[in-house]
Design a protein that fits this description.
- It is built from 24 helices and three strands.
- With 653 residues, it is mostly helical.
- It has three domains: 220 residues, no CATH class; 335 residues, no CATH class; 50 residues, no CATH class.
- It has a three-stranded antiparallel sheet with strand order 1-2-3, with no helix packed on it.
- It is elongated, with a radius of gyration of 32 Å.
- It starts with a helix and ends with a strand.
- Pfam families: LtrA.
- Keywords: Membrane, Transmembrane, Transmembrane helix.
- This is Low temperature requirement A.
């Protein structure tokens, strides 16, 4: 393979004018091969060289149909987030299981698409099947949402398992088709065939669930079984790619797909944040500074999550094993981001409800045993209660207090007690205290139920509770779950960003290690703080009630601190005299690898020549040393080698 071949092809390419029809729409083939045509031309008839080449087309970016598939992921995520009520730890665990099933189903399709998908009728038909599978995901509601009143979870489980199995069989067929198309490259047969077999086994395992489970209602055994199958399937595909580097993801756009999915998940948090903001403006007649501050903090939180993730990414290509570990860690990272942003969404409304709750408490009697303290007559006391009830009623606009609870009956009962028992008698104080307590407990419940359009969990616990006091206790438990979810999600996100940062960078300086340590420390503090806030005082006088407007702001300050330390460290590294990290990077080159995958890639684009041909081998470089001095990297960072041929004394291109 000689360098002169590249120059001849390059000259032909440069001298041939572009075809008039080159930009016209062409027909869509029924079946397109993922094999690189240049590889076929190069190794045609030369069997001995076929094991040294990477035969598949290298796709630099996600196709539109792949992005369209991502929309089904986010649609399911948005639907289940809105419908699935996190009322306790068990319901939150079910939500995590559902997210896991969705994420690993998305992963299985993505791992195929990033390596082998080529636009054709067959590919679009296969993608349509996956769209249908994601649409049938609505049956998962009966499997994982235990607050659903419709008791058809056994039927939903069977339908859900059938959809999962059908989707896996469809992916397996795609792998077997690719296996046939690349049959002349013997090194690809085993890994591609094994990948298809993994999906066949996963589909068969899902089908077994139709006959073995469920036994009665769907519970943890059924949920965990699906959970384990999905995770094992994803891990198996990655393990195959580790042992057979010829089907690795190193020269694919898998990194880009994961980054786009991260952006989509953050975007789902933005949608929820806007809905929550609209809810408080629609539910209340006015907003105070604390509510506005919480909304501002929520916007900043989402922006900071974006910066924390994307600013820490290294654009240098990293090795196969590290890349796949980096990719797998996106599952817990995405889970942590979802918990954080959904908690952030709910806390906007929770804070607004707590502000109304605190207002109601401020006008409630301090001593139920002497409810009319400071009043000289029953008429004055009843008039004061009437004004207070009217103030509460005027605070809300979407739902009125007097339409949900007839507090005038309590006031009439107090007036009747005055006639029968006498004003401020012991009997009058006891009975009036009970009536007034009942009024204000129902008013406190109303402060939360007025936001039930966004806080669906309120309706779930309200329908199950009995007395007003029991309902309030159930509502406060939901608040505890939300606060704990938020802080654990935020802290875990920082911890996982530190882990991802570690695998994203091969050679780490002491300053970069400092970045990771900062994330770990702040992440641990965030989780511990959340546990303290919730567990130390579960009552109504805890921090989360007294300073509800600071719950999101504290996380914002933590994220800001991490970014501040990052920039201080970068400034120190930039202005330090040694520039150790920079020099070592220049010496080893930006594409120094820690594995042998680079040997497989002999068909990367030589961008500067304007053609797609195999990279020159070491023998070519030696044979033509009299004509060409070096092969210099052009500095691109898109994950694929791109070289410029430079002649002694002047550049050829």
């Amino acid at each position: 393979m000689h360098i002169s071949r590249y120059l001849n092809d390059w000259r032909k390419t440069r001298s041939t004018p572009p075809s008039r029809s080159s930009h016209q729409r062409t027909y869509l083939p029924f079946l397109a091969s993922p094999i690189n045509r240049d590889v076929l031309d190069t190794v045609s008839g030369v069997t001995s060289n076929r094991h040294d080449v990477y035969p598949y087309r290298i796709q630099h970016e996600a196709s539109t149909v792949e992005l369209f598939y991502d929309l089904f992921f986010v649609a399911n995520l948005a639907y289940f987030t809105a419908m699935h009520q996190h009322t306790d730890g068990s319901s939150l665990a079910n939500y995590i299981k559902l997210f896991t099933m969705t994420w690993f189903t998305w992963l299985g399709v993505t791992l195929f698409d990033t390596r082998f998908a080529v636009d054709s009728l067959w590919n679009r038909f296969s993608k349509a099947i996956q769209f249908g599978v994601m649409t049938v995901w609505v049956y998962a509601g009966g499997v994982y949402d235990k607050s659903d009143d419709i008791k058809n979870d056994a039927r939903s489980y069977k339908n859900f398992a059938t959809a999962l199995a059908f989707g896996r069989f469809a992916i397996a067929v795609q792998y077997f088709v690719v296996m046939y198309q690349s049959r002349m490259f013997r090194r690809t047969l085993i890994p591609v065939g094994l990948s298809g077999l993994v999906h066949v086994l996963a589909g068969a395992a899902f089908m077994v669930q139709l006959f073995v489970l469920p036994k009665g209602s769907v519970d943890n055994p059924e949920q965990i079984t699906l959970f384990i199958i999905a995770i094992a399937e994803g891990l198996a595909i990655f393990i195959i790619a580790i042992f057979w580097r010829i089907v690795s993801f190193k020269y694919t756009h898998l990194v880009e797909r994961l980054q786009l999915l991260t952006l989509i998940i953050i975007g789902e948090g933005i949608i929820g944040m806007v809905k929550s903001t609209a809810c408080i403006t629609k539910a209340q007649s006015s907003t105070n500074a604390a509510e506005v501050g919480t909304v501002i903090s929520s916007v900043l939180l989402l922006y900071l999550i974006y910066m924390l993730y994307f600013d820490s990414l290294s654009h240098d290509r990293f090795g196969t094993i590290r890349q796949q570990i980096w990719s797998l860690f996106h599952y817990p990272l995405h889970m942590a981001i979802v918990l954080c942003v959904e908690g952030n969404t709910s806390l906007i409304v929770w804070n607004s409800a707590v502000q109304a709750l605190n207002f109601i408490r401020s006008v409630s009697p301090t001593d139920p045993s002497d409810p009319a303290a400071g009043f000289k007559s029953s008429a004055d006391y009843i008039a004061s209660l009437t004004r207070t009830m009217q103030d509460i009623n005027d605070r809300f606009i979407s739902v009125k207090w007097n339409s949900t609870y007839d507090w005038t009956r309590n006031l009439t009962a107090i007036a009747n007690l005055t006639k029968s028992e006498g004003f401020k008698s012991d009997s009058w104080n006891n009975k009036t205290g009970e009536l007034v307590t009942q009024i204000f407990e129902n008013a406190q419940i109303f402060a939360f139920s007025a936001h039930k359009d966004t806080l669906g969990a309120i309706k779930a616990v309200k329908d199950q509770a009995g007395t007003p006091r029991m309902t309030l206790d159930a509502v406060f438990k939901v608040f505890n779950v939300t606060v704990l979810q938020f802080y654990i999600g935020a802290g875990a996100m920082l911890l996982l960003l530190a882990v991802i940062y570690w695998f994203n960078k091969k050679n780490k300086s002491k300053l970069e290690i400092g970045d990771m340590v900062t994330r770990v420390v702040v992440g641990v503090i965030g989780i511990v703080f959340g546990l303290i806030v919730v567990l130390a005082n579960k009552g109504e006088k805890g921090f989360k009630f007294i300073a509800s407007s600071w719950i999101v702001a504290i996380a914002v300050f933590g994220f800001l601190f991490v970014l501040l330390v990052d920039n201080i460290i970068l400034a120190i590294a930039h202005h330090s005299s040694g520039h150790v990290s920079y020099r070592s990077h220049k010496q080893r080159g930006p594409y120094n690898d820690d594995d042998d995958t680079v040997k497989l890639v002999q068909t990367s684009s030589i961008r500067d020549l304007g053609i797609s041909k195999p990279l020159p081998t070491q023998q070519d470089r030696q044979e033509h040393a009299t004509h060409f001095v070096t092969y210099e990297h052009d500095g691109s960072t898109d994950g694929v080698e791109s070289y410029a041929l430079r002649e002694r004394g002047k550049s050829v291109v």
